Amino acid sequence: MSWDTYKALTFNFPAVELSLDLSRLGLPEGYIDSQRGAFAKAFAAMDELEKGAIANPDEGRMVGHYWLRDADLAPNEELKTTISSSVEKIKAFAAKVHSGEVKGSNGTFTDVLVIGIGGSALGPQFIAHALGVPSEDKAAIHFFDNTDPEGMDLALNAIGDRLGSTLSLVISKSGGTAETRNGMLEAQKAYSDMGLDFAKHAVAITGVDSKLDKVAVSEGWLERFEMWDWVGGRTSVLCAVGLVAAALQGIDIQALLDGASAMDKVTRAKSIEENPAALLALAWFYATNGKGEKDMVILPYKDRLLLFSRYLQQLIMESLGKEFDLDGNVVNQGIAVYGNKGSTDQHAYVQQLREGVPNFFATFIEVLKDRHGPSIDVEPGITAGDYLQGFLLGTREALGETGRQSITITTPEVSEATVANLIALYERAVGFYATLTNINAYHQPGVEAGKKAAGAAIELAKGIVGALESSKGTAMDAPTIAEKLGKPESTELVYKIALHMAANAKAGISKIDAENWYDAKFLILA
Ligand SMILES: O=P(O)(O)OC[C@H]1O[C@](O)(CO)[C@@H](O)[C@@H]1O
């Protein structure tokens, strides 16, 4: 890359100490100019959104995550007060927990168990991993982010005998998410097995009057923090969803809010070149032909940013992956996101990136500061951190040689400010990209289909137990059970569910193997 091309296509944003290098994207001459009209619309739409327009038309909702870090921007006094008092309430609660004024049955809280999924876990996980220092944190943080029983066992195992000084945060915007409900019930059981009262160790973060909120009220949980319908799950990390856990861990949440606010100010610029979120959205649009034709590979060369790609997966794919545009046309939009960290990835999938199917563009995230404190030389005059940067620069070069596109974001260090900068940068880039592609970034109708089908499988499971119980001692294969349930069309599901039940000896169900696996029979002994 020539120095002049690099300078011409690298954009620096001193206010947030960030630089964005688009020089390895192959942007044709005049491309930015050709997009000015489209971006004028995107800037205008973003202005309207920030003023409180119903930017999520399907759900008739405002989209207010930008107000969370600058309450004065909220469209009315009530919201301004709600937002600021929520932040104050979080800080005050964390202070009481740290001082021991609010404590568990076994004394000052040492651990925090976050129970949530999707946007109610990914943001808190990213922040905890990026900014936590185990030996200094005010609380160790653990997650139930799935309905996998063994995953929960592992988290409980890490907590060990400290459950009596563990604060559980149950986080669900809707308050009705099955995985989170299951996690809550499992946690409740773990506390009660140790003779502890869950309610005295539990905090709810949810919408007012949701199912979860009602449970928290009726059981007299320690505290409740409100979530609002104008904050989407995937953009909720800077409200109570992410801030309570972060504050308890000892992370400076005001610095997070200020970092996001600083990036928000920069990304309100009305000129593409002066706006890093606009440049990022433009880069995505160019690289994917505005149709998601290429995947986005996120490559932070920093262990602390490992979970950023997972966080972005939801932010970008749940926001942009849409069947219809705002006019009802079928568009099947989206950008697939994956990634891990460099240089670890160099020894995993970079081989394919360089030589295999050219269906991606990479985003390198470069962090200038290696560590707090000095580093030893691993070779004369060279540190491990020099190697890390060397691998970033080398991989980027190697990808360029085979015509693979990349973006590079450079930030000075990993801190509250820069982590929040990145979050705010990508939130706004997603918003701009949605306007460029004329889609609603703020709903997720597709998620419902899987939830409904899962519900049907659970109903079927109940039926299978009933069928085997009513014919105790009789072994039946899957087609017979399905027939008995009046659901021959669901034979495959019956087979899969019965296999799982037998593996877990559920309701005493066992399996009699046959030579052909599909002829296995299931029974409950008489
Ligand atoms: O916070 P809730 O309501 O439990 O939802 C969890 C996640 O489920 C989804 O609704 C769908 O995956 C996400 O948008 C959301 O972040």
UniProtKB/TrEMBL annotation:
Its Gene Ontology molecular function terms? carbohydrate derivative binding; glucose-6-phosphate isomerase activity; monosaccharide binding
Pathway assigned to this chain's UniProt record: Carbohydrate biosynthesis; gluconeogenesis; Carbohydrate degradation; glycolysis; D-glyceraldehyde 3-phosphate and glycerone phosphate from D-glucose: step 2/4
Q: This protein's superkingdom? A: Bacteria
* UniProt-listed Enzyme Commission number(s): 5.3.1.9
**Pfam families assigned:** PGI
Q: Does the keyword Flavoprotein apply?
A: no
What SUPFAM superfamilies does the record point to?
SIS domain (SSF53697)
Protein location: Cytoplasm
Q: Which Gene3D superfamilies match?
A: Glucose-6-phosphate isomerase like protein, domain 1
Q: Which GO terms describe its cellular component?
A: cytosol
PROSITE patterns in UniProt: P_GLUCOSE_ISOMERASE_3
Which GO BP annotation is one of this protein's? Answer: gluconeogenesis
Name the UniProt key words of this record, in alphabetical order: Cytoplasm, Gluconeogenesis, Glycolysis, Isomerase
Q: Where is the active site?
A: 318, 347, 451
Q: Which reaction(s) does the protein catalyse, per the Swiss-Prot or TrEMBL entry?
A: alpha-D-glucose 6-phosphate = beta-D-fructose 6-phosphate
Instruction: Please name the HAMAP family in this protein's record.
Output: G6P_isomerase
- Summarize the protein's role: Catalyzes the reversible isomerization of glucose-6-phosphate to fructose-6-phosphate.
Recorded hits in PANTHER family, A to Z, give:
GLUCOSE-6-PHOSPHATE ISOMERASE
What protein name is recorded for this chain? Glucose-6-phosphate isomerase
Protein's gene = pgi
